[in-house]
Amino acid sequence: MTTSVRPATGAREALETTRGLVEITKVRKSFGSTEVLKGITLSVEPGGVAVIVGPSGSGKSTLLRTINHLEKVDAGFIAIDGTVVGYEVRGQRLHELREKEILKQRTEIGMVFQNFNLFPHLTALENVTEAPVVAPRAGKPRLSKAEARERGLELLDRVGLKDRAGAYPRQLSGGQQQRVAIAQALALDPKILLFDEPTSALDPELVNEVLDVIRGLAKSGTTLIIVTHEMGFARDVADTVVFMDQGQIVEQGTPQEIFTSPREERTRSFFSKVIEPAFNI
Amino acid sequence: MSSTATPVAHSAPEPASAGTESAPGTTTSGTAVAAVPGTDVPAPGAGPGTAAPAATGAAGAAPAGRRGATDYADYRLVPARHPWRWVGTAVVGLGVAGIAWSLATNPRWEWGVVAQWFTAQSIVNGLLETLKLTAISGALGFILGFVLALMRLSASPLLVSVSWTFSWIFRSTPLLVQMLLWYNLGYLYEKISLGIPFTDVRFFEAQTTTLISQFAAAVLGLTLNQAAYSAEIIRGGILSVDQGQLEAAAALGIPAWRRSTRIVLPQAMRAILPTAFNEVIGLVKGTSIVYVLAYSELFYTVQVIYNRTQQVLPLLLVATLWYVVITSVLSVFQYYIERHYSKGAVRTVPLTPLQKARKFLATHAPATRETAQERGTR
Q1: What contacts B254, CB < 8 A, 6 or more positions away?
Q2: What are the TM regions of this chain, as residue ranges (chain A) (predicted)?
């Protein structure tokens, strides 16, 4: 059932291919008596773009949060470039890593949240420069304040917000806040970027400015795993679309396969509800 | 075809738009001319017969009120009047004046005596002791309180229960009792030593009575009591910060201590500060309780003096006035510290009283009022 997500274009293959391979193997997770993830196996190639879709409560967000160990898995494991996340393999056992080691792993995995979660008491630039200065990084030195500042301005420029560097999050629109959050995640130069419904809290007119930034990242060689309800965007940007329901992967494939000729009845009925008729033309 | 014609028909009966709003008018007319060669084409509009003559008539001298609704845009705004507010102000003002008059004229307040003692050396010494006690036990109390709050929020059941028990004991015993207990610790334990329990190893040993002076007992009592209360205040502040903030910080790999001090605490401060200043102001006056240890802070000094001179009320007034002064200064600090931590939480940082005064003068200056009137009569 393991299908790989391959970089679609030749340009992407030219980039280094050892960075950002995500392998999720037989992952299970329960909250109390509810099993949210029922044995998920999924693999995303370096530089690939996987979009996870599915109804609310299907476990999409939880799956995403297990990848950077914000949620511990109950069974199974997740490996990034062959290294298990959150645990150390010693003999036949997985020993839970100490806080500092987990933080190191997390600096390789950026995450963008539905509600932005910017630090409201810090300016846009301070939000972006905080982590590179203080986070323990694997194989890389921490940045000095001046270096972080330079890099921060560069990243804010990249998301089109250089002139708002001194603004506090509350002085920015939702779309601008989410773009700052993307710059914040990029500041650690991660191999993998996780997006947890990045446009769900935005006004419709602000959605595109965020999606455009993510589209730009899809071509950068960073592995992207995106949970979204924006089907048009998913079709546009994804190498692989993964349809999840009730804690399981129902099916996965290219956008073409999943959106136009889904094999499973469950997938078909879901898309018939969420995609406007005009889209299928 | 109809979609291009509709805006033309809509703009036609609006006389003002033809003459004054030139920018949109020219663009629509440009496309309209291209689409509509003659003037008789806009049939889909509501009143095709009247629309065209109205437009030509507007070019002449049609008044603004022709559409039925009057244009109030140039009318002057008159604020609502509040006569009862003035009545209330007068009543309160009269009351305040009465109190002030009685304070000034009743000879039994003995203002002369108050003035004589207010800056006396012994009083100032007492005041300094009060400030010293407040500063030391306030600072130590809040530091210990912060540690206790973190313990209480930690994942370790032992730390949680130790913190809980500490708060439970010190909040449920009267401060007066705690104070006397610390001072009389020598009665319970003659010597205090530091070593390994149940062995003879001692690193340090001293007579309790030499170790715990009046000052030490006062600081100990006030600090521990303060810590118990401030722990709860700080814990409340930390709990008020959105969980997503911690999650985002953890996802970015920010270390735990930094998450507490840089991300959570500054945001918690907004909830902590008002109550914390309540506590500090309470502590300023609360230090007066150490008079039971015969410690010569402000209140004890005043007592000693009036026992000698029998001028009880004027001397209590001296102490009271000093407490008022300290509290006032603290309130000013509070205002500016709260303002500092409000950045990011509000879209614009509130003005300082000085800035407010400047703004008031600027907006109420005669020159600007004239321009406002000009706008009204134009």
Answers
A1: A103, A130, A131, A134, A135, B262, B263
A2: none
